[in-house]
Amino acid sequence: MTGKRTLVLDTALRLLGERGPRALTHRAVDEAAGLPAGSASNYFRTRAALLIGITGRLEERDRAAWDRAPTPRDTAELVEVLCAVLRHAVTADEPATRARYALTLEARELPEVWEALRAGHLRLTTWLTGHLRAATGDAAIPEAAVRPLIDYIDGFALHHALIGAFDTATVRSTLRTLVTAATTLDLKQS
């Protein structure tokens, strides 16, 4: 990704997360990024294109965060990695977490944005399923068994980005329960 394009997307993501969907305009992105007028629209002609770009940038940032984390060798390490990623999402990366949920609301009116979010969610589910399979040595764990874990992560991040207060012990315990459930659910024949 080019430097200016990344700057446009990171600025748009921050505006969306900090000030909400109404503040997200091409002009506001240009001003906040310190770019000449028309820069954002050169990369993203429409609002939908800008929102899809933000969706892709969020996924790219998520992937980078996961890639920086140690590769879990077992489910206990996977729980710790998930806990650390969640803590980061609701503290240091809170504007991005808020932007993710603002995108979800905006996407209800824009099918192409909704599809971009859905595709990213499916890629995350596939990726996490792969890590769970590797951590357990069980290649038969289906993606359907991982969906409740993904749903918890999404819901937890939203709740805590809006409410605050990260309780590590509770998060760790809940993640442990969900990881265990994902490895034992009788969905392997489905």
TrEMBL record:
<dbReference type="Pfam" id="PF00440">
    <property type="entry name" value="TetR_N"/>
</dbReference>
<dbReference type="InterPro" id="IPR041583">
    <property type="entry name" value="TetR_C_31"/>
</dbReference>
<protein>
    <submittedName>
        <fullName>TetR/AcrR family transcriptional regulator</fullName>
    </submittedName>
</protein>
<keyword id="KW-0238">DNA-binding</keyword>
<dbReference type="Pfam" id="PF17940">
    <property type="entry name" value="TetR_C_31"/>
</dbReference>
<dbReference type="InterPro" id="IPR009057">
    <property type="entry name" value="Homeodomain-like_sf"/>
</dbReference>
<feature type="DNA-binding region" description="H-T-H motif">
    <location>
        <begin position="25"/>
        <end position="44"/>
    </location>
</feature>
<dbReference type="InterPro" id="IPR001647">
    <property type="entry name" value="HTH_TetR"/>
</dbReference>
<feature type="domain" description="HTH tetR-type">
    <location>
        <begin position="2"/>
        <end position="62"/>
    </location>
</feature>
